[in-house]
Specification:
60s Ribosomal Protein L30, Chain: A, elongated, 3-stranded antiparallel β-sheet, binds zinc ion, 38% helix
Length: 185
């Protein structure tokens, strides 16, 4: 596995664990699926690393940018890339029959679920009942749409490879939001 260094904290990690950035016409581009050509810089999916890299032109140096580099709303764009991937994985999981949703189905299948996701605007009683679940930033409507359903407060993932990938994206998302769901909104 290739190893890269995070521009923020300087830690060496497996390339697949880091977020790839490239520069294009003086702007930092989030290359989430590592498809774009050119010199790249890498960041841990953590807000502290992103902010550190934006300081004092460290990212510009890592990207060997000629002239000033526009970071813009980089933390937000990274969060959006993670969110897009999460929605895509939820869609795949739904197509693969690995998703149950809604109060009754999630409760009935609870023991078989690897992961339970709770919408940001779920009711207090749902939040309390699933206090140990992953509290999302997606609304009921967004969560339902991701799995091709009407609005859903609860989505459960049956154990398997996709549940693992979704858990990884959730960890990234929470890392970029540094525990504050509304920070980047
Ligand atoms: Zn880092």
């Amino acid at each position: 596995m290739p190893i890269r260094t995070c521009v923020g904290c300087r830690a060496e990690r497996e390339k697949a664990e880091l977020i790839r950035l490239v520069s294009h016409e003086g702007r930092v581009v989030v290359d989430y699926h590592a498809k774009l050509p050119g010199r790249a810089a890498y960041l841990c999916p953590k807000l502290a690393c992103i902010k550190e890299a934006m300081k004092r032109g460290r990212l510009a140096r890592a990207l060997k940018a000629e002239g000033p580099l526009e970071y813009g709303d980089l933390p937000e764009r990274i969060a959006e890339a993670i969110e897009a991937q999460l929605r895509a994985l939820l869609g795949l999981a739904a197509k693969a029959g690995k998703v149950v949703s809604g109060w009754n189905s999630v409760r009935a299948n609870e023991k078989r679920l690897a992961l339970v996701l709770v919408a940001a605007d779920a009711s207090e009683s749902v939040r309390e009942r699933f206090a140990g679940a992953s509290q999302l930033w997606l609304t009921k409507e967004e969560l339902g749409r991701a799995i091709g359903k009407p609005p859903r407060s609860l989505v459960g993932l049956l154990d398997g490879q996709l549940a693992g990938r979704i858990a990884r994206e959730l960890e990234r998302y929470h890392g970029v939001h540094a525990g504050d769901r509304d920070l980047l909104r």
